[in-house]
Amino acid sequence: MQPTPRAVLLFALAVALAVPWTLLLGAWWQVGVALPLTALLALGIDAALAPRRSRLSVEANVPEMMSIGRPARLTVSVGAGRNVGGGRCVVLPEVSGPLQPPAVTEVDWTGSDSGAAVAEWPLQAKRRGIGRLERIWLRWTGPLGLMAVHGRFEIGRAIAATPDIAGVREVALRFAQNDALFGQKAMRQHGEGSEFRALREYAPGLDPRSIDWKQSAKHRALMCKEYFTERNQQVIFAFDCGHLMSEPLEGVPRLDHAINAALQMTWVSLDHGDRVGVFGFDARVRRYARPIGEVANFALIQRQMAELEYRPEESNYTLGLMDLMGRLDRRSLIVVMTDFVDTVTAELMLDNLQRLSARHLVLFIALRDRALDGVATAEPRDLRGLARSVLANDFVAEREVVLQRLQRLGVLCIDAEPGRLGTEMVNRYLDIKRREML
Fold it and tell me: For residues 275 and 233, is the Cβ–Cβ distance under 8 A?
């Protein structure tokens, strides 16, 4: 136990009154001496009424798994076997790993006879990995708030921070709603494939190139051909795990934003009958998982993406992308998820993407920084603000130059904010399938 600031102030006030009382009123010196003693007695009473550590019980409700960018809830229940008159209780959880430290919280345990109190925190993870709730620290006082007691309660519970699949659930629910509305979906979907499906009468909005003129002359009406979409094609997600992708964007590392969006496109790809592979590189190749199909394997692909690690090295595009090209024996859709700073640092990336796009269909994914756009468009109020605005405009302009060069090379590009990246990727994938670009 230790005195609180309130106890120190009380004792100092008692001494400050006792000294002049004794000096000025010598006949009543006993009263002056009694003031500090009374303060000490109050401290002793408060210490005796404070709940004992052996009578305290601490229970923590910890989630076993949480998603990056979405807070989970940590609940700690503190119970006192005997609590006369209440007092204050301050709770602090100690966490480790990628978990952000919660703030100190004061709870009120005077609301029930047993003195039970509950504290809650929104628990967030900065990165993927395994975090731990190590222990709970408590600091409580007696009913007078004069004596404080410190206690440490070991917890040792693990919390896995995984990629966010909430967007995948939304995509799956949207597809399920379409199936429920229009009936069970055929295993082979129609689109602009190469296998003939049926004839239908031409309607505004259909591609005029699909008109069959011989059948139109026979039926005396414009008739269009419909085809089955191609299935069992390969989709490879190539993740840059270098230092630029480890930098945070809106509080979450860029690599995690990329993985979250890739999982949405992965589910749609598997649902459409294609196979999905995972490739990770930085200064060297870190991971390659061969493409697999079936929606039942989504959890396996999710685990493969979750095992991608943050690396402090600069990415070697020549080694990484050329290694990937050598592993693929058929034309594939390669989704390159990376980042760049300016046109100078992007030169090697552009050269290797040009070689890759000569044999495969490349979809280049870049994350747009909303804060950078805000600085570039903000009205400067001083010279420092003007310098920041000019520098931000230069970065935005060079970024546009790189994206335009990629498009001229035949590379498909998506430059979107993290919140819209998954939707943009799914829409682009469906457009690729519809147009049979593979």
Answer: yes
* Residue whose structure tokens are 């940590």: 74
- Both tokens of 291, joined, read 């493409």
CATH of 53-162, one of 1.10.8.60, 3.40.50.2300, 2.60.40.2910, 2.60.120.260: 2.60.40.2910
CA proximity to 365, closest of 255, 242, 211, 232: 255
Q: How many residues does the chain have?
A: 438
Q: Rounded to an integer, what distance in angstroms lies between the CA atom of residue 46 and that of residue 148?
A: 9
| Residue 191 binned pLDDT confidence (cut-offs 50, 70, 90) | very low
Superfamily the domain 230-435 falls into: von Willebrand factor, type A domain (3.40.50.410)
pTM as predicted: 0.69
Look at residue 181 in the predicted model and tell me its pLDDT: 46
Q: In Å, how far are 237, 249, 270, 322 from 291, measured between CA atoms?
A: 10, 29, 10, 18
Closest by alpha carbon to 372, among 391, 345, 386?
391
* pLDDT, the chain, mean: 82
